[in-house]
Design goal:
The chain has five helices and no strands. By secondary structure, it is mainly α. It has a domain of about 55 residues. The N and C termini lie close together (about 5 Å).
Length: about 120
């Protein structure tokens, strides 16, 4: 399941901290999940791909060919990204005196943070 955060929610900081806390044991669990998904896609092909697309991306697609992104689309998306040296939003540090209204004015993600589909296994 993909986690979505609302920056205005009262538990935002606690949920963000929980998501950003990494347990080394997760590497093993993730590796096992990824291997199982790859084996399933190899065994069942497009049917498995479409099942995982529904599960992780919540996209109901009936033809795997429709999931393909053309190179020109990828290139356009890459060109639309800000430069690597552009300032990025950082959450305020604990005890910094930042308030919800300060966070709301901060540039950065809107109201959600989305993990890659493979990371939710």
């Amino acid at each position: 399941m993909i986690n979505r955060l609302d920056i205005d929610a009262s538990d935002f900081e606690a949920r963000l901290t929980h998501l950003l806390t990494w347990d080394p044991g997760q590497d093993l669990d993730m590796g096992t999940s990824v291997k199982a998904i790859i084996a399933d896609v190899r065994a069942r092909g497009d049917a498995a791909l479409l099942d995982y697309t529904r599960r992780f991306d919540r996209l109901d697609c009936v033809d795997a060919a429709r999931l393909r992104i053309e190179p020109a689309e990828l290139h356009a998306a890459l060109q639309a990204l800000p430069p690597a040296n552009a300032p990025r939003w950082k959450p305020p540090r604990s005890g910094s005196g930042a308030t919800t209204s300060t966070r709301r004015r901060s540039p950065g993600p809107t109201s959600r943070r989305t993990a890659p589909a493979w990371a939710s296994g």
